[in-house]
Design a protein that fits this description.
By secondary structure, the protein is an alpha+beta fold. The chain folds into two domains: 238 residues, Glutamine Phosphoribosylpyrophosphate, subunit 1, domain 1 (4-Layer Sandwich), CATH 3.60.20.10; 190 residues, Rossmann fold, CATH 3.40.50. It is 29% helix and 27% strand. The protein contains 17 helices and 23 strands. The strands form six sheets. A seven-stranded antiparallel sheet has the order 3-2-4-1-10-9-11. A six-stranded antiparallel sheet has the order 5-6-7-8-12-13, covered by helices on one side. It has a four-stranded parallel sheet with strand order 17-20-21-22, sandwiched between helices. The longest helix is centred in the middle third of the chain and has 15 residues. It is globular and about 70 Å long. The C terminus is likely disordered.
């Protein structure tokens, strides 16, 4: 991934009809979702209505160990979250699951996505005297649920009533004293799936790969606008807010999701292969080897090689042991950090014309350094192929593309200029039209607004990342 587009978050929940080590299951699920967020993580457990939780900054393996999991105790419901902040900065108060104690009982909420009207919702509550403890939009969702719960007969009824007020992307798991509730925005911007284990436990997760890691099998996707309620009576579905075909973020297929996940009926791995095949059809070039940038560029590189007939090769070794605590000994640039993260296999590229496939180019600085590494390893030519269109627009639904100022595709008018800047002999992107074709089995429509500038919902005021911190500190 070149250069620093971040995943947003991953959510996970489990409901069992018996008391068990549900925290351990959530740990496994979060571990499988670690790619969706590396800033922080948390787990909350319900044991007969009593909540316990643990949250911390860092990777799942850094925050939780065997003793920490044991300290959460046993229960029959649990939810978890891995975080990359799209709205709200760091700090313990912003780490999820967000736990709320109110007159109707306890709840814990984990949210993946980004609301475009969070500031408006938050202001309404603050004017009525509410005090917010975090600077994330998730707390605005929780306040809406609690406020409506006071007037409703059940939590799921409250969720159903507030969904029309929430604008933007939200795939959520919500734990009460007796229920696990999953709900997804009517556009279905972010994925949400349901699974089941042989012991009868139900699982909700951002991706099917996490269900498998927790010992379950995929049952189905949560539909856009659907509320799924899991309790002692089984599973119930509320579809009052379902409408239309939805608009899943196409970047889930290009980069966010694990390749072994199936999202809304389509294999992520297969979608990336098809992206590479489209690239080979539309932008063929004479070359000796095709290589991919680990990790999400590898599948597209395989697809390019298959379609073009050019041999596929392993071009890089990735250092998989660099966690969020990795610190360079001095002040280095992002380009220098590439030397630590990636190492070129010289035998693959030396003296050869190389097709280099990656999932995207953002600012271009890291991409330029990778091209330079290939040159230093003896590559005769480097032809860059990108399995997504150029980033030209902001994303308002959870992807960390907050400003167009630094996007290389906004600073240069054509691909020839960008190729020159990054040092490649040629450059080609996936077409915007192909983004609607790569996930051929997807049951939903797609959102490609960050490429096309056309969004499924109206954006009247562009929300800013960390907007609430800006209000506090200005």
């Amino acid at each position: 991934m070149t250069n620093n587009i971040h995943e947003e978050c991953g959510v996970f929940g489990i409901y069992s009809d018996r008391t068990a080590n549900v925290a351990g299951t959530v740990y496994l699920g979060l571990y499988a979702l670690q790619h969706r967020g590396q800033e922080a993580c948390g787990i909350a457990v319900c044991d007969d209505g009593v909540f316990s939780s643990k949250k911390g900054e860092g990777l799942v393996s850094e925050v939780f160990d065997e003793n920490t999991i044991k300290s959460l105790g046993e229960g029959n419901i649990a939810v978890g979250h891995v975080r990359y902040s799209t709205t709200g900065g760091g700090g313990l108060n912003n780490i999820q699951p967000l736990t709320i104690r109110h007159i109707k009982g306890n709840l814990a909420l984990a949210h993946n996505g980004n609301l475009v009207n969070a500031e408006e919702l938050r202001r309404g509550f603050e004017l009525s005297g509410a005090i917010f403890h975090s600077t994330s939009d998730t707390e605005a969702i929780a306040y809406e649920i609690v406020s409506e719960r006071l007037k409703s007969s059940s939590t799921e009824e409250a969720v159903s009533k507030i969904m029309s007020k929430l604008k933007g992307a939200y795939s959520c798991v919500l734990m009460t004293a007796t229920k696990l509730i999953a709900f997804r925005d009517p556009n279905g911007f972010r994925p949400l799936v349901m699974g089941k284990r042989n012991d009868g436990a139900y699982i909700i997760a951002s991706e099917s790969a996490a269900i498998k890691a927790a010992g379950g099998e995929l049952v189905r996707d949560i539909m856009p606008g659907e509320i799924a309620v899991i309790d002692k009576s089984g599973v119930r579905s509320i579809r009052t807010n379902t409408c239309g075909k939805g608009s899943l973020c196409v970047f889930e297929y290009i980069y966010f999701a694990r390749p072994d996940s199936v999202i809304d009926g389509a294999s992520v791995h297969h979608a990336r292969l098809r992206a590479g095949q489209y690239l080979a059809k539309d932008s063929a070039v004479a070359a000796d080897v095709v290589i991919g940038v680990p990790d999400s560029g590898l599948d597209a590189a395989m697809g390019y090689a298959k379609e073009s007939g050019i041999p596929y090769g392993i071009g890089f070794v990735k250092n998989k042991y660099i966690g969020r605590s990795f610190i360079l000994p001095e002040q280095h640039s992002r380009e220098d950090a590439v030397n630590i993260k990636l190492s070129v296999i010289k035998e693959t590229v030396n003296g050869k014309r190389v097709v280099l496939v990656d999932d995207s180019i953002v600012r271009g600085t890291t991409c330029a350094r990778i091209v330079q590494l290939l040159r230093e390893a003896g590559a005769k030519e480097v032809h860059m192929r990108v399995s997504s269109p150029p980033f030209r627009h902001s994303c308002y639904f959870g992807t960390d593309i907050d400003s167009e100022d630094d996007l290389i595709a906004c600073r240069y008018d054509n691909t020839e200029d960008i190729a020159r800047v990054i040092g490649a002999d040629s450059l080609a992107y996936l077409s915007i039209e192909a983004t609607s074709e790569i996930a051929e089995d997807c049951r939903l429509g797609i959102c490609n607004g960050c490429f096309s500038g056309k969004y499924p919902i109206e954006i009247t005021k562009a929300p800013q990342k960390n907007k609430f911190e800006q209000k506090i500190h200005r």
